[in-house]
Amino acid sequence: MVNLSNNKIIFSCTQTQIERNIHDEIIKFYGCFQLGFFAKYEALTIANSIRRTVLTQSRQYAITAIKIENIKHEYSSIRGVKETIFDILKNLQKIILSSERKVFKTQILCVSESGPKQLKAKDLKFPTFLHCINPNQLILTLESSIQFRMIIFIDHISVYSSSLFTCHYYKNLYLYLTQFKRTHSLLSTDFLLLNPKTSPILNLNYTIHKKTNQSEMIIFDIWTDGSVHPAFLLRQAIQRLLVLLVPFYEFKKVIHFKYQKPILSKLFLSKFIKLDLCNFPIENNLYKKLLNLRVSTIGDLYKFLLKKDTVSFNQLTYADRFQIKQLLKLVHLYISRRYIKMDN
């Protein structure tokens, strides 16, 4: 059996770059990450679990539905528009949106254009917190001097919210905003839905490197479409796995003898303090500041606070200190619950 108790837990980004395709002007994010150390044959199991979890994630923001006057289904066509409704839906699906904020309210864009003209993503008036990655993405082509009107719905996508985006939901929202009194004039079929679960992952590979002490390290290579950084997706996947597995971990089912409690508690704490701060609910700006202060794990954070270095501590804003305070409360609550289960 390999003794990994003295090995440092590593979760770091070794390389990151931005790749731009000249032909389609799509920006790609690339990141290379190392994760370890693991005992022999454990790395393959963990790498497969993380990879599958990363691939199930979707973009944070996406166009989820549209409404076009007198259009009932995606197989229709509009006189004076070159593209069919099906082509318009496919073009809207290709628009990549990004944001550093989480806004859960549905955003509504009203489009009113007259031809002849090519309508592109840059012509849409997105909310200020949304950034379009590919503004030159073509939506449709107006070949004659017609008036084209369309309503676009944009939503924040999560694992649990995607099932809420139905025609009935958009109909009620539209009626509420326009304050229609007669609901029979608008049908649910007037709304065309887009697939909200579009993955931002373009490619994902991993390799397992074996070390001299028979331990193993996982190397992830991740490419995204520019809407989100690969580091965020990897951290989010690890957090999702932890949330799924931690509730099944019971100390009282493992411990049978009283003299084993101190051994298991020390083993638990030794691994817990080596967890990278990216596994905890803190903002990216604070995470970068702490890395500059050489604080990368939860153990480093406690050492940093015990040193009481006023020069380094003054580099943190009031909001940063409040986040650290909330994080420590969560850590204390988590550890206290673990030890309550041990005593029982």
Automatic annotation (TrEMBL):
List the Gene Ontology MF annotations in alphabetical order. Answer: DNA-directed RNA polymerase activity; protein dimerization activity
GO terms (BP aspect): DNA-templated transcription
Q: Which Pfam families match?
A: RNA_pol_A_bac, RNA_pol_L
> What Gene3D superfamilies does the database record attribute to this sequence?
DNA-directed RNA polymerase, insert domain, RNA polymerase, RBP11-like subunit
Q: Does the keyword Plastid apply?
A: yes
Domain of life assignment: Eukaryota
For this protein, the record's InterPro entries field holds: DNA-dir_RNA_pol_insert, DNA-dir_RNA_pol_RpoA/D/Rpb3, RBP11-like, RNApol_insert_sf
Name of protein: Plastid-encoded RNA polymerase subunit alpha
Q: Which organism is it from?
A: Derbesia sp. WEST4838
What are the top taxonomic ranks of the organism?
Eukaryota, Viridiplantae, Chlorophyta, core chlorophytes, Ulvophyceae
Chain's gene name: rpoA
